[in-house]
Amino acid sequence: MTQFNMAENAKLVRKASRIVAQLTTSQKNHLLTTMAQAIEDASDVIITENAKDIQAGKDKGLSDAMLDRLLLTKQRIVDIADAIREIVTLADPVGNIANLALRPNGMQVGKMRIPLGVIAMIYESRPNVTAEAAALCIKSGNAVILRGGSEAIYSNVALANCLHQVLENQGIDKNIVSVIPDTSREIINELLKQRDSIDLVIPRGGEGLIRYVTENSQIPVIQHFKGVCHLYIDKYADLTKAVNILVNGKTQRPSACNSIETLLIHQEIVEEFLPLAAKALADSAQVKIHACEKSLPYFKDATLATTDDYHAEYLAQEIAVKIVDSFNDGLDHINEYSSDHTEVIVSQDTSRTQQFVRAINSSVVMINASSRFSDGGQLGLGSEIGISTSKLHAYGPMGLSSLTTEKFVVIGDGQVRD
Amino acid sequence: MTQFNMAENAKLVRKASRIVAQLTTSQKNHLLTTMAQAIEDASDVIITENAKDIQAGKDKGLSDAMLDRLLLTKQRIVDIADAIREIVTLADPVGNIANLALRPNGMQVGKMRIPLGVIAMIYESRPNVTAEAAALCIKSGNAVILRGGSEAIYSNVALANCLHQVLENQGIDKNIVSVIPDTSREIINELLKQRDSIDLVIPRGGEGLIRYVTENSQIPVIQHFKGVCHLYIDKYADLTKAVNILVNGKTQRPSACNSIETLLIHQEIVEEFLPLAAKALADSAQVKIHACEKSLPYFKDATLATTDDYHAEYLAQEIAVKIVDSFNDGLDHINEYSSDHTEVIVSQDTSRTQQFVRAINSSVVMINASSRFSDGGQLGLGSEIGISTSKLHAYGPMGLSSLTTEKFVVIGDGQVRD
């Protein structure tokens, strides 16, 4: 392989971005539908290439969980194609003008949604990201640079070949989707300098990758470090709702970033609530408990919680528990330990719930609902390209519209300024 | 002066940001009104301090234009106070939920506007920025770190003292407005590393300052490098509108970034339009012309335009002129040389104007109106804190709402996920 020239590649993608930005919704949908079919039709080839990644992964001694995330089967390839077809059904945000206001001098002023331009995804393992991120970018009128990890390189290139074949057949510049074949760290450094060509970088992977990209990028980065989600049970909580929301939030899919990691309980409801909670957590999934001194006696086999536990994103059947003296102490704990992901209050008291919503500025704030709903699909955004826990540009789950921006459109009839 | 600890200061401002975020609109308006009055009342002190900056500027040999930008007079101090009072009248974006949608399971999902948190302004000369930026940040619920240039340090500190006095009298943490007394470059480097405390950096000044901040910041930066605004006169242009929009765009205030720097003319309208344009530009302000070969004969004393002229932000009574063969050649020229600020088409043809709006993705795209309207106040945003020519977070003139973000608010009644 000749050496990959990142700057040159980024310029080609920038040029191609003008083409995808001008495609109509029908053209984009037709393109995506054809891509979905092409991926299904190529499943034998994709599985053969994927087998090389799996073999290399075994040779490197990857864990079974890692290998499973890498693996592509017939069914998983159908799932990828279906995910693209799902994106076809989403509304196209590009070109919309929400409101065209009339200025005193008769000019109309509005803001039109437009694509960002070029989006770079830097991600690890799961090869489905290659196809789904490409589809979300195309649907929102963006060109995309995909830099997957070395462990999935054969699978990623096989998927990219399908997409490029479709683009070629339809006579569209294939640089609107660019898969970087170089999996070195140096190429990431090069990528992060191309601020004249790339508008946004979205890293998906472990905290190390995201920190590295944030600290080295000259291009804006969507950050999602971790999800330390809090559930606060108020003294005015409905106990049944509280137990259900706790069990669902902690045990339904503990490996997800929107799972509950810390349970806070108002001291005046401890007597009624904690015995029910302890039983429910033990019954449903034998959740490991890290309890504060006061709550420790309510659990069997709990360990004493440390400050580290309140910072922990367990991503497992494990939870930190703390009794707080007051509503305000609950807010203070959340403000101190929050990862700006998702926080939930369970309370029937409307003043408390209102105050909670105003005082907590995490990206998703919930009243009487499971944190597991903190997800683009569940919140009604359609497919999700990531979750931002930093406030700039997008905050919280990101759908298609987070891949766009707005320009001002002014419609005059000869107006000049006095 | 003891050494200024930037990290420590930023942490104090971050802490204070929670207080300003929770103030009601009435509280913020009362605070700002009192600040405006305090500045007016302190005008003697401010003028005395400003005189030190002016003297230092003279000693350093600053130009008369620079000294004029630094100078504060009684009237200019009243203007600063009035600018703050104007901000009081603006609608408060914080707390608004644009739309609360119902999900199939009965949960309500909306997005609430919230302050960004801590905003850092890095700016040069004009001391009025100190007061106006502070007021815009307070009104939008943000804390602010102000780092003005050494040439205005006495004026900036005098203004900050007024603001701090008001905060102290009202019992509000004075760290919601922090003026950095250290004017070294090192302190900027320190500031740009405080990403745990600062949410957004807005540099205002020359291209050198903005590039420096962009290349060295770990915090998101609002970029505004320059305004190379284009005016395209289509073959279907109304000639009277075209001449008015040209003269207004170029000569009304040539030092503004929304002035026209390049005039493009469709070849089929050259004969009718250029003689009128040449006369109007000569009559109104003796504009210096850099013309392409074909347009050169239409002007007296024009020089031949080079590629540099098409990149130039003259900020003076000076313009580049080019005849284009077709509408598409006009689009291509703009896409190549655009600074993503403002572009204008003059045409009576609705297909052409529509196509122009779709094909040009600068932050402000105008039909039949003067580029001089590309300004927060003129577009209806109220006071402007800056103009972004990069697409992330904000694009184009930025008002109060660009100093906020949106969090998701979910209102349930015990829902859990299946």
From TrEMBL, chains A, B:
Domain Aldehyde dehydrogenase stretches: 12-282
Annotated Pfam families: Aldedh
Location (main, coarse): cytoplasm
Keywords tagged on the record: Amino-acid biosynthesis, Cytoplasm, NADP, Oxidoreductase, Proline biosynthesis
Enzyme Commission number(s) of this protein: 1.2.1.41
Associated pathway: Amino-acid biosynthesis; L-proline biosynthesis; L-glutamate 5-semialdehyde from L-glutamate: step 2/2
Domain of life assignment: Bacteria
GO molecular function: glutamate-5-semialdehyde dehydrogenase activity
Substrates-to-products reaction catalysed: L-glutamate 5-semialdehyde + phosphate + NADP(+) = L-glutamyl 5-phosphate + NADPH + H(+)
Location in the cell: Cytoplasm
Enzyme class: oxidoreductase
InterPro entries: Ald_DH/histidinol_DH (IPR016161), Ald_DH_C (IPR016163), Ald_DH_N (IPR016162), Aldehyde_DH_dom (IPR015590), Glu-5-SA_DH (IPR012134), GPR_dom (IPR000965)
NCBIfam families for this protein: PRK00197.1, proA
Function noted in UniProt: Catalyzes the NADPH-dependent reduction of L-glutamate 5-phosphate into L-glutamate 5-semialdehyde and phosphate. The product spontaneously undergoes cyclization to form 1-pyrroline-5-carboxylate.
Protein name: Gamma-glutamyl phosphate reductase
